[in-house]
Structures are given as C-alpha cells and as structure tokens.
Amino acid sequence: MSGKTVIEKILSDHSGEDARAGDRVWADLDLAVVRDFGGPNVVLEYEKQLADKPVWDPQKIAMTFDYQAPAKVVQVANNQRICREFAAKHGIPHVFDVNAGIGQHVLLEHGMVLPGSVIIGTDSHMNLLGAVGSFSTGMGTTDLAAGWATGRLWFRVPGTIKITFKGEYGYPASAKDLTLFLLSQIDTSKTIYKAMEFYGQPIEALTLAGRLTLASMVTEMEGKIGFIVPDEQILGWIRERAGKPVEAVVSDGDASYWEEWEFNIDGLEPLIACPDRPDNVRPVGEVAGTRVDEVFIGSCTNGRLEDLQVAADVLGRMGGKVAPHVRLIVTPATTEVAMGAVEAGLYETFIKAGAMVTNQGCSLCTIGHHGVLAEGDVLVSTGNRNFRGKLGKGSLAYLTGPAVAAATAVKGEISLPE
Amino acid sequence: MSHLEPEGEEQMSEEFVFSGRAWVVGDDIDTDMIYHGSYLPLTDPQEMAKHALEYVPGMEDFTDKVQPGDILVTGKNFGCGSSREHAVITLQYNDVSAVVSESFSRIFYRNAVNLGFPILEVPGIAHQVETGDELEVDANTGSVRDLTKGVELQGAPLSGLEKEIMTAGGLFGYLKKELQAEE
Amino acid sequence: MGQTFAEKILAEKAGLKRVEPGQIVTVQPDKLLTHDNTAAIAKIFHEIGVERVARPEISVIVLDHVVPAATEAHAKNHQQIRRFVAEQGIDSFYDVGEGICHQVLPEKGHALPGYLIVGSDSHTPTHGAFGAFSAGIGRTEAAAVMATGEIWLMVPYSFRIVVKGRMPKGVYAKDLILFIIGDLGADGADYRSVEFAGPVIEKMSVASRMVLCNMVAEMGAKAGSVEPDEKTLAWLSGRAKAGFSPVSADADAVYERTLEYDVSDLPPQVARPHTVDNVVPVEDVAGTRIDQAFIGTCTNGRLEDFREAARILRGRKVAPNTRLLILPASREVLLAAVAEGLVTDLVSAGAVVLNTGCGPCLGAHEGIMAPGEVTISTANRNFKGRMGCKDAEIYLASPATVAASALTGEITDPRQFI
Question: Looking at the whole model, is its pTM more than 0.90?
C-alpha cells in the first residue's frame, strides 16, 4: 500500500484504523466548538437527547461568541445566555464571550489548535485552521451534540488533490488574490468534498495571515479542508501559545493523490470576485469605476493585523479620507488584533479617514450584525461570500483583498491601490 | 422525525419511497437562500419553517403553496455556504419529503444525513423535471420516475454508514441503536 | 422686572420686547436636528404637500440610532434619508459613524450660545449646556419646521436650580442630576425651562454640563441650560460656523421655583428599574449582581467619562460573566480616547469597544439583554424594555459607578477604587 496523505494520516491517527480515501471512520475529537450561532441549537439538542448526562470532556469543548457580539436582538442575547449556562453547568472552561473575536482566530491565538488535530465547529469556515495543518471542519447541530456526548464522530475520508503553485508576484497582489485566482481556475465538481494540500514557493512565502486567507476559502471551493504544512516559524508561534511541543503532519512521499494540479501565478494581479459568486473572479481593472456604497475590511479571511495594516497604508498613501458617499467598516478579527491595531496607530488612521471601526467579531459577514445593505447598494468586502442577497435583499457584493478594498473606499468606486 | 425499524442490514423501509409534486430550483442554491442569515436566532422549528427558500428568486411563496410530501429538485451544489442545520430543518418542517439534486454541497449533505432527511443525487435531474411534475422517488434504489413526463432517471442511493444513519432516523437514532446493541 | 433665560431668548426670537410664561410665540429656530427618523419626518413633510424644505441651511441630520444598519429595513431607511438630503440640498448631514446626534451637533459648531434649537429627539435639551434654548419636538412638528421654517412654542415657566458646596471625590454630574430627578420626580419639572447655576455648576466642565441638560427631559422639562462662560467659549473655539450672541437671564428674573442643593455630602446615586426617578444612594443597591455594564450614550459617552472609567479599570480585569460595553459618543471622542491610550486600557480590561452610535440604549442594536439579565448603564432611561428586552432590568449610574460595578460583577460604590 502506498503512503498516506495528510488527511489520511490524521484520521488514521484519530481512529486507530488505516484510514484511506473513501473509507468511513469514527475519529476522536480534539476540540468541539460552538458559536453563538448554532451553539444554542446544540445545547437544546444535547439536552433533548441526553438530558443532564455529563459531556464527554469539558476541556475539549469551547464556545466562541462572534456571530452577534454583542447581541442585537433578544433571541440572540438569550441564545448566548443558554450557552453560558450550559458551560457553567458542565464545567466547560473555554467560553470566549462577546469581547473575544472570531472563534477560529481566538482559538488559534490561545494555542488550542495544533497541527494534526481534529476539530469540529458550527461554522463552515472552521476549516481555515487547515492553514496550520489542523483538520478542522464545519458541522451542524446534530454532529456537535453527538460530539459533545461521545467525543467521536463519523467521517468520510476525503481524497486529496495536491496543488502546487509556481511563479512570483508582488504588491498590490496578495494572498487573497492567489486565493481568488485558484477559485477561478478550479472545477468545483472535482473539488467537492476533497482535501487539498498546497505546495510551492508562493505557498511557503505566505505568512500565517496569508495562509489563513487561502485556507478560509477552501469552503468556497467546495473542498473539505485545505492543508498548508506549517513552517518552523509558525510552529514556534503555536508552541509558545500551546505550551507544549508540536510537530507538523507531512504527507508521505508516496502518498496517493486523487489528482495533482499545478498553477503558475507569475505576475499575479489584484483580482475581485463579482456578484453573485466567489468564483466569479475578474481582474480589478475590468470592473474599475463601479460605484460602491459600502466597504468592509475584516472577516476570518482578511481580519488580521497584517490585513488592517495594508488597508491603513493604502488609505494613507491615497489621501487618508474615505469618499463622502462610502461607508467604510473595519473590524479586527480578535482582541489581540484590535490592540495591535490601536498600538500601531491604525485606529487613528481609520477613524480620521471617516471609517467606523467596530469591535472584533464576524461583523457584517454573517448579516448577524451590522452594515446591512439596502436594495441597490453595492458592497466591496474582504470577506469570503457574496451570494445574492446575503447581506441585504437586492444588494450586490464584491470580494477582494484589503488593498483594493481600501483604495475603493477612498475613490468611492472599485479601484486599484496607488 | 419518526424512528424507523430497519428490516435488515441492506434495506431501508418503504418509508424511503416518496410520491409527490416537484419544486425545481437551479444550481448553487446556497444556505442563505434556503434559510437566510437574519433568521439564525430562531430555535423553534415551526418558526424556522416559515422562511424556507425565501431568498430563492421565484420561490417567495413556497411556504404558502408547499404541500406535505412535495419533493424539492435542484441543480448542482445544493446547500453550499454555511453549516447551518436550519437549512435542512426548514425544509423538513414544511413536510418536504426529500431533496433530489444533481449534487449536494458537503455540509448540507452531512446535515441531511444526520437529521434523517432523505436526499438523493441524480445527475441531470434539474433539466429533466419541471415544477409541478408528479414524481416517484425510491431512495433505496436511487430511481426517480417523473410520471408527468414519462421519464425515469437513475441516481446514486445512499450506502454504507450514511445509509445506516439515515435508516435509523438520524445520528442520534443511530447512536442510541448502537448503545442498545451494546447493552 | 427681569426675564428668565427662556423668556429672553424666546422674546428675542419672536421679535418681542418681553414674553410671559404660557404665551404662545412663533419663532424661527436656528437649528433643526433630526436623526434616523428623518425619513419618517420627510414622509410627513411630503404629505403636507410641500416640495422643498423651507430653510435647508438650518437642518442638521445625524444617522446614529442603528449604525451601521442592523437590518434591511434600517438600511433602506438610511438610504431614503441620504436621497432626501441630496434632493433638498441639506449640507449638514452626518452619516453613520460620525457619532450620536447630541454630540455631533455641538462638535460641528451647530450648538451656540443664544441659539434656538429644536430637535425630533427627547434629549435635544442637551444643548442648553452651551447657552442655547434647546427643546425636543415631535415628528409632525419637525416636518412643519421643514415645511415652513418656523414653529410655534409656548413659553415655559422657569426653575432655577442653584448648586452649592463641593463635589466629593467619586461623585459626578450624573449623580447630581439623578439626585435632583429623584427629588423632583419624573414630572417634577413638567414643561419647564430649568436653569442650572451656582459655584458647583461654574466649576463643571462643558461635558458635565451636558450631562445635566441631557437629563432634564427625565423630569419632564422642556429645556435645560447653563449660562455660557469662558469654558463654553473655549470649547466652541474653532468650531462655531457662525457668529453668536450669548443670552443670560436677568439678575432680577422671576422664577416659578428656585431650588438649592448642596452636594458636599452627596454619595453616588443609582436609578433603579424601571423609572429614572427611582433614585437611591448606591449603598442601597450595592451587591446587586449585573450581567452587563454599559458606558456611553449622549448622556455619558465623552472623553471625561472614559477617563474616569479607564482610571478605575486600568491594570484590572472586568469580572467574569459580566460584559462591559464601551460606546464613544463620536468619532472625535473615540480618536481622543485612542490617542490617550484609554481604548487600550479598556480593551485590556476586557471591555468591548463598539463603534460610535446609540448602540443598545434604545434596544435596537449591539448589546441587547436576555430575559432575566441586569445591566448597569450610563444612559438616561431605564424603562421596562428600553434596552430591547421586556424581562430585563436596567440601573442608571455614573461612568465611575458603572466601571466599578463591571470590575466586581455587582453594583459597587466607585469611591473604593478612587
């Protein structure tokens, strides 16, 4: 038998079986996470099915409130309360409340996400943690409740596509553009339910923030998980926060891939996903001049300090003021990012430019919160989804990187950064 | 959802044969169209049911017109987007008997299985069936007959673990059966 | 016989030598303030059958209530207001993120001594702190002002409140006004103009004077005011867009009531659920568990408020199971708070710093409670359901009291931390 891919190794390790693509295995969970969206449903389902039965391991459960932080309607306030009460009752220590930020990013910063781990959560972008080699996946209420009860779940072992990038690119192109490029090139009927492993010099050159960007949109590629092997620097970063030794999981040299693809991204230019799909990707130049009403810089895809820094730099270089008819909303991913942004003077830049800086969290991406659009409004966002009407019936959304978003906010129309 | 009595290892019961009217929608219907994000705070399934398919163009009156037993037919990549189980529940609680799609997005697929909500993948289905057609769907064999058009199509029925979970009425039904078997 | 402040301003604006309380006068306001309700007002205005706003130059419109838009309905409302502003040529329009209308109005130089200001918001009296006669009116009246440029007003009776003694440490303008409201009752100053005077008032900052005037509405008053002095002029320096002539009450003016308060032994005050005049000393409610603490609003969302809060919270942590929300009243306040390191202090302590706006004060956004929860807040109202949940409780207090309570997780006398 040939060697194993990353996912085969992880699921073998967690199931005690020789897990291969196509198999069904029951794997042990390292962490089962809920948000304030999905969380209350899990609590209610758990209590309906299992009443007061203790959870399998309170240390391996976490709650992260990021969907509507803080609540804007009573139901969500109540939902958050239901979750807190359940955590208190079951002795679950890891409750990251409305002041913490986007769940996956918070867990990562707290050293709770290790390479090679199996993590489930009520968010379809859990899999952005593949950026550090963790098999993290979004699941529904029933899976989470069952996970809380037993600590294990059934998985179909996905086949893996090996994707290698070649070539070089420079600013203003970014990890987001590499990601949008990939989205535009793949056939989702092939990537559906696959794992991906990313290789090549352009991938190795990505910082943690860039890797999170790429991994976060594997969902939009219909993939199950996208792995990037963490380098020494990232492993060191994780080790420090986890307080324990960690090693990357690396696929075997003779691992069997479903397919192998190569992409050349020499001269990659800034790209933008046009309404209504994330793979409706075009060069920014093709839609430049489109008038916009709102710009959002943030999200689990582009909400890290590095992203905010890029945006602030562009704002500074282009006159430091948002166009009068544009609402610019900036949301740091986590408290750590927010503090970093304050210290780096980015808050001042954004506020003076006329932006609204909101508290850390998922912000407008989930329509949970704010920045909802009116009919006819056009949004440019650094998020990961732009399906029709998602952020307001009759509105249109474009997806792009922080530099283009910032330039667009200044000009009031889709623009390339200067 | 009722818990089913499996008759044997390989068989699902007759409850996996459905007859009903078809509602046809296109490709890439994402979870916000099936169940919009603004309704996520709801936890009562009866309330959730009121918003099924609300954001799918042309389906705004679906919840008024849908009849128990109706079958939803879709194009590719149905249920893409969020992991919200609400998307399955909202259909279940409108008494939609099954969803037959060209292909399912992975999380929706999984959620449907875990909730014991019958699904079937049938290549080409969305182009062959029209809204209002009378369908007969056999999830055991994967066959779909469009009685109105006199057309028969073959899909891939669930098998293996997914089939067992579906047969047991969902993941908790399956887990409880397992626990009973152990005792 | 001399005239009170209200009598003098209204006489002048009406072109009369003198007026008597109870007399109806027709006057041209210097400013008309409206906010997110502008669209509703515009609707009435159109129903009157008038096409053009009579005096667009007096209109000041600030979007602050639900910002950025929380639902499609709010987004549409904002969109309609923007269109109305453009169509009518209203220059003084401040879009989402600028701040709360009662902070933005004076910051942008629209609240000046001797001015007559009317606003479609019950806390319009805030601007009496600048020596203006500033009163809240209804939507229909606001529409009439838009249509005709003038308004009829009944001259109110006047109270004079003289405040003596020395403000103790840990006791602030908020405590003073809560005490007065508790003393006079919710309708104790019904339709009155309330003038604040005396050595304690003279020593107060402009921001503190705004606290007093902001809350006169809670005792039924039509307007509140403080005589402008060098502090007022210093605050306004560089902001006023027009010339102005301060108006002062005559020394021999006749008041319906003159009240005297000595603050030397005043302890911090708290308004208990569910009315603003249900005021007691903090020790009467100390120890009450709180789920949420809120510092912000047009009452107490200014730099001096955040300085006090940060002073208490610096280097410490908010109690577990208690959420602390911080809402700066304007972009300018937020910038200053960032520059002074207050945002860093507050976020480090575990607070959620929200974007500028009214936030949860009126139950529409960002900080709603679950049934059974308790909030202590620096806002001006605590009616049942005010913050969005009928089965929750709101206590009102000063920023220092709220900050101290956030630290301990229960209502706490701030003086132990000062």
Answer: no
